[in-house]
Amino acid sequence: MFIASSPGDSPLSEDGQQTSHPKVVLLDAVGTVIQPFPSVAATYQEVGRLHGIELDQASIRSRFHAAIKRFSVHAFQQSRNLADPLKTDEVSERLRWQAIVDYVLSPTPQQKCLVFESLWDHFAHPENWRLFDDVLPTLDFLVERGFRLGLASNFDQRLRRIAEFYFSDYPLELFVSSEVGWVKPAKQFYAEVTRRLGLSPNQILLIGDDWENDVKAPQKFGWQTVYLDRDGGPDGVGKSNGHNTLEDAVDRLFPN
């Protein structure tokens, strides 16, 4: 991770060493540039209700957080006895989300398919996502300074539709785990993105809100990283280690 430097300087690493400015700035998607709207709990509740499932939002929220841990890509692929649990594709992502929906809403066999398809389709529509307020000003700032831009996300092909809707005016390159074939934090994800960009690892900067996927793992591969701490950070990660907004992170890294 990197800390603020003096105006006009390149960023400094945590050990105080000068680093070169990146040529490309990649952003994580969910939690960094977009968030579901209405909330996940509200959406699951409404879809469940339409199919005869009654659950309060607090229960849904609790079950969803448990499901995300229980059916992480690593855990889910291990349960399928796959050789590499960080390898993924579109089929794997649909199966994993089916397991998450089943865990959260407990649909009957008769409800199962309709409930899942309704939720899968809901989150494919751009209007059910919102940009954080600091995203477009940050992209404008970076475009004006000549940086290549991209999204690097653990997602599936639905992200392309969302990105086209919100970022059609920006030259964003899109790296989606289901298409890359690996999820963050697999080193193969960062290696493949680096290859496609045609750059050296240290010429790539990733900004994201996941400490493991967007900071620790890409750092090990040689990327520059910035931790976006919108909500106070995970256990063991102090708030001082992150930036609260994209604008703050970018302003400090690339001062005028």
UniProtKB/TrEMBL annotation:
Gene3D superfamilies: HAD superfamily/HAD-like (3.40.50.1000), Haloacid dehalogenase-like hydrolase (1.10.150.720). It holds the Pfam family Hydrolase. Transmembrane segments: none annotated. InterPro entries: HAD-like_hydrolase_domain, HAD-like_sf, HAD-SF_hydro_IA, HAD-SF_hydro_IA_REG-2-like_cap, HAD_sf. PANTHER family: HALOACID DEHALOGENASE-LIKE HYDROLASE DOMAIN-CONTAINING PROTEIN 3 (PTHR46191:SF2), PTHR46191. This is HAD family hydrolase. It comes from Blastopirellula marina. The lineage of its organism: Bacteria, Pseudomonadati, Planctomycetota, Planctomycetia, Pirellulales.
